[in-house]
């Protein structure tokens, strides 16, 4: 991938997440990326091709986090790692989630959703640790972390360190 292709993807990801896919013209992406609109079409064919490339990047990012969780065999550490991942500022992840949410509301898919696999990995951990209702606990933690992640990304959570310590303490 060229530097210009990467720049186009970065700009398009941010714009799709903040302005919405339908509301973002390729001319704006080109302008903010410092490239011609024709270059976008040469590399990505059309706006949908650009979205498909962003979707592929989102899937790789999610798979990387899930692989790390899956490889953690200490179940208490797996839960702590999931918490750490949610509080980490992972480049692009919040934007991918915003795009996924927006497109999901219109019935358009965006990459593979990591939700089911994350639930499974957390449920397995809670079950091994003898939590009552491991499936419910897994969904509760996932949903709580998603909300926290959204608040962090929006800048609405001034004391993330205290909240992280609190959540970690719930599962210590």
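-> sequence recovered:
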């Amino acid at each position: 991938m060229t530097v210009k292709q990467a720049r186009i993807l970065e700009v398009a990801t941010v714009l799709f997440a903040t302005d919405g896919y339908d509301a973002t013209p390729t001319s704006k992406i080109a302008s903010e990326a410092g490239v011609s609109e024709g270059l976008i079409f040469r590399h990505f064919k059309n706006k949908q091709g650009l979205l498909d490339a962003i979707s592929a990047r989102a899937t790789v990012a999610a798979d990387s986090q899930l692989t790390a969780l899956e490889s953690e065999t200490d179940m208490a550490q797996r839960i702590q790692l999931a918490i750490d991942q949610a509080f980490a500022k992972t480049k692009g992840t919040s934007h991918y989630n915003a795009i996924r949410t927006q497109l999901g509301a219109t019935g358009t898919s965006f990459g593979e959703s990591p939700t089911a696999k994350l639930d499974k990995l957390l449920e397995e951990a809670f079950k091994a640790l003898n939590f009552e209702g491991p499936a419910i606990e897994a969904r509760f933690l996932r949903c709580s972390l998603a909300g926290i992640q959204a608040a962090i990304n929006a800048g609405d959570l001034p004391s993330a360190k205290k909240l992280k310590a609190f959540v970690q303490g719930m599962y210590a």
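The mean pLDDT is 88.
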